[in-house]
DNA sequence: ATTGGTTCCTGCTGGC
DNA sequence: TGCCAGCAGGAACCAA
């Protein structure tokens, strides 16, 4: 599941190939994604130069020379792959929905079996007004995020800290995996009321979020089922998960007997699995 | 205003 | 061994 570190990894992989590249052609084989790919998508992009590749929350942004922006999202199972030559990119599979063909030769292909991803195009100069962008909270790795900002964002929230962190309006870029990992590192129960995370707890959580994201990016993201870097390299951070997917395994922070404690616990919040240690997280 | 439930989709898994 | 129901989950949307 691509979250912030995976998307960051993808953007870093795409930048050397796409930044400054001219799009010779854009092929849309399957427009039925999370939202329909706009009919004008190909025509509006063909012939244009890509100025920058950057990430906003879990969105991949291709900023074009005509001041319009491609907004991409990998959803659950999306993948971007670089093919160095058209020959390598021949015979697209049934989930290979969009090809970005550069004039220099390399092709970037968007594939997404579950079609939860999307590929949209903004009007000129309107990125920040876009409905998918305008409600996003601060980026946890950005300059406008710190423990005070987090505390203010959580103040008065009646929901759990788990749900609040998954909400992209609070903080943009975390998903289920990294919320579980950050809460474990911060020693905070996923069931705790969000509003009670103030002061030192907000500071601990801020540091935990930053640390886990930076470590994950350094490892190339996490490869569960789908994520690969655009050059085909896997990510390796899944081996560093402390709690995610580790139900009934011993808690790495406890020295207690799994037979007695049951090890890492699992519960369902907001329809998603939460993994946690009831002894270390309060 | 917030919040919880529903929905989209396909591949994988576990139970028989 | 093989089948298939159920699960996984990002986030917009809707209802309360």
Short description:
By secondary structure, the protein is an alpha+beta fold. It contains 7 helices and 10 strands.
SSE arrangement, N to C: HEHEEEEEEEHHHHHEE
Tally of domains: 2
Total of DSSP H or I helical runs spanning 4+ residues: 7
**Shape-level CATH architecture of the largest domain:** Orthogonal Bundle
Q: Please give the largest β-sheet.
A: 4 strands, antiparallel
In what range is the share of β-strand residues? 15-25%
Please write the CATH class name of the largest domain: Mainly Alpha
Distance between the termini: 27 Å
What number is the mean pLDDT? 92
Strand order of the largest sheet: 1-6-7-5
CATH fold field value of the largest domain: Helicase, Ruva Protein, domain 3
The count of DSSP E runs of length 2 or more, i.e. the number of strands, is 10
Name the helicity range.
Answer: 10-25%
Radius of gyration of CA atoms, rounded to a whole number: 20 Å
C-alpha geometry: globular
- Helix-strand makeup class: alpha+beta
Unreliable stretches (pLDDT < 50, length at least 5) are none
Q: Keywords for this structure?
A:
10 strands, N-terminal domain of MutM-like DNA repair proteins, 20% strand, four-stranded antiparallel sheet, DNA-binding, alpha+beta, Helicase, Ruva Protein, domain 3
């Amino acid at each position: 599941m691509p979250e912030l570190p995976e998307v960051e990894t993808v953007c870093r992989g795409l930048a050397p190939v796409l930044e400054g590249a001219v799009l010779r052609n854009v092929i849309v084989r399957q427009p039925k994604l999370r939202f329909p790919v706009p009919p004008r998508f190909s025509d509006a992009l063909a012939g244009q130069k890509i100025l920058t590749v950057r990430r906003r929350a879990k969105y991949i942004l291709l900023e074009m020379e005509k001041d319009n922006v491609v907004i991409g999202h990998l959803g659950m199972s999306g993948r971007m792959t670089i093919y160095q030559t058209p020959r390598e990119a021949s015979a697209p599979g049934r989930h290979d929905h969009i090809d970005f063909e550069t004039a220099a030769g390399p092709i970037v292909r968007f594939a997404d079996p579950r079609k939860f991803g999307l590929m949209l195009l903004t009007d000129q100069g309107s990125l920040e007004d876009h409905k998918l962008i305008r409600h996003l909270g601060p980026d946890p790795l950005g300059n406008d995020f710190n423990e005070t900002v987090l505390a203010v964002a959580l103040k008065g929230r009646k929901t759990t800290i788990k749900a609040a962190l998954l909400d992209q309006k609070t903080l943009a870029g975390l998903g289920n995996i990294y919320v579980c990992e950050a809460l474990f590192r911060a020693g905070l129960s996923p069931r705790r009321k969000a509003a009670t995370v103030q002061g030192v707890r907000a500071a601990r959580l801020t540091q935990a979020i930053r640390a886990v994201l930076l470590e994950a990016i350094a490892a190339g993201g996490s490869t569960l089922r789908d994520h690969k870097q655009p050059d085909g390299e896997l990510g390796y951070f899944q081996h560093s998960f402390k709690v995610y997917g580790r139900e009934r395994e011993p808690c790495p922070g406890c020295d207690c007997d799994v037979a007695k404690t049951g090890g890492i616990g699992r519960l369902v919040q907001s329809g998603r699995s939460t993994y946690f240690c009831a002894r270390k997280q309060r």
